[in-house]
Amino acid sequence: MFTPRWTRFYEKFRRKYLYKAFVRNDQDIENERRLNDPIHLDRFGYKVYSQHDEDGIICEIFNRIGTTNKTFVEFGVQDGLESNSHYLLFNGWNGLWIEGSKAHFKRLNKIFNRPISENRLAVISGFITAENINDIIGSKIKGPIDLLSIDIDGNDYWVWKAINCISPRVVVIEFNAKFPPPCEWVMKYNPRHIWDGSDKHGASLKSFELLGSELGYRLVGTNTNGTNAFFVKREEARNLFPEPADAENLFHTWGRRFIAGGHPVKEYIGK
After folding, report:
1. Which of 2, 47, 186, 198 sits most deeply, having the most CB atoms within 10 A of its CB?
2. Where are the alpha helices (DSSP H) in 14-51?
3. Quick count: other Cβ atoms within 10 Å of Cβ 259?
4. Can you give the pLDDT at residue 18?
5. Is 96 helix (H, G, I), strand (E, B) or coil?
6. In whole numbers, what is the pLDDT of the chain averaged over residues?
7. Residue 219 in contact with residue 244, Cβ under 8 Å?
8. How far apart are CA 256 and CA 193, in angstroms?
């Protein structure tokens, strides 16, 4: 029987892509179990002003550990409209935003003129490196804070490792989901690095887990699309979050599937 060309194309597409997208495997079943388990953060995610479901996860973390001074520091915010601390600002928090783009910084000042004029939000324009991050943050905020959010598409690992002027209780950081656990990979430090649209950025979740442990933090979750990892000070995490607290347990294969394994490949980025 003759099959129209478009039908043959559709059948080929369905077999090659749709089946792969929806076939259930052991990890899919595990992900569903996590969504039904109230100790995992997955089920609490939602978006208000964050890029994905980070707003809900951040709120649930503080529901469990409480807040202290309701102060945040976030860098890599662009114009601030889609950021991990915008919703916190909306709910009465105070903090600091740092943005390297002059255009985004100009727009940010215009959009958030009210909280800036009320001294609830400080904004700084500056290109962040591991060498200058403490001077930049320390010019506005020092000591304990509730939240630090890092997303600079590059030296995230090295900048987090360098920060000592503040002591955040919770850290949200973008990881490179191209490299699933137990793979350890960290981008070579380059203080002049600007993201070029490739998958050469940041570090794998396992590498962040190990760095977090070195700095006194426990990995408590990742969001379902495989973008951000969430860390809590070890002494505050107690028994409030999933065990084992490692990348192997908390990595999302769903997220890796949807982002096609990371940013586009443009060059070899092996160790």
Report:
1. 186
2. 19-22, 26-35
3. 15
4. 45
5. strand
6. 86
7. no
8. 24
- The pair of structure tokens assigned to 93 is 């928090």
Tokens of 67: 């807040």
Lowest-confidence region among 67-71, 146-150, 151-155: 151-155
Helices and strands (DSSP H and E) totals, the chain: 13, 7
Q: Distance between CA 24 and CA 180 in Å, rounded?
A: 19
Contact 257, 21 (CB under 8 A): yes
pLDDT single digits (tens) 169-186: 999 999 999 999 999 999
Query: Which residue type occupies 50?
Result: S
What lies within 8 Å, CB to CB, of 65 at 6+ separation is: 169, 170, 232, 236, 237, 240
Strands, DSSP E only, in 76-142? Answer: 94-99, 121-125
- How far CA 16 is from CA of 9, 39, 178, in Å, comes to 11, 36, 21
Whether 11 has a pLDDT exceeding 80, the answer reads: no
Place of tokens 């394994």: 261
Q: What is the pLDDT of residues 15-58, one digit of tens each?
A: 455 444 444 555 666 677 787 889 999 999 999 999 999 999 99
d(CA 124, CA 107): 13
pLDDT of residue 15: 47
Express each pLDDT in 110-120 by its tens digit. 999 999 999 99
Residue among 112, 107, 110 at smallest CA distance from 96: 112
